[in-house]
Amino acid sequence: MSAECPFCTLPENYSLAFYDYAYARYDSYPASPGHMLLLPKRHVSTWSELTGPEKTDLLDMVEYARITLDRDVRPDGYNVGFNDGKAAGQTVMHFHIHVIPRFDGDTPDPRGGVRGCIPNRMNYIDDEILSH
Which one is catalytic: 35, 94, 96, 98? Predict the structure, then answer.
């Protein structure tokens, strides 16, 4: 636990599910309806600091999130990922996995998905086709 961490200081009623080493909650600033965060109970910053059981619980929770969101918001797809370190865009230094429901038409061209973190590399397929 960290007194400065916004995830460590949230009351338990913000959580949707608890596993032995991890929990799920909705994102306070969702990218889309149903956007979930999966977090270790222990305060660590990066994937490499997690123990094996923590990683297992977090990855198992991806399936919990998918089942819950399929039932509750019925998305057409998902982006699942995490930002590991400041250079990767991590702003809250408590490790967390984003499960972001996606809906047909929510963006004009979703091709490239998570590659959009580096915008000029998002449409690599077109770049490859054009270069050959």
Answer: 96
How far CA 121 is from CA of 87, 93, 111, 112, 114, in Å, comes to 17, 26, 11, 8, 10
41-96 residue pLDDT tens = 999 999 999 999 999 999 999 999 999 999 999 999 999 999 999 999 999 999 99
Strands (E) in 1-132, as ranges, are 15-18, 22-26, 36-40, 77-81, 97-102
* Per-residue tokens: 11: 């009351």
The domain tally of the chain equals: 1
The enclosing domain of 95 has a CATH number of 3.30.428.10
Catalytic residue list contains 132: no
Domain coverage including residue 87: 12-131
| Residue 57 forms part of a structural domain | yes
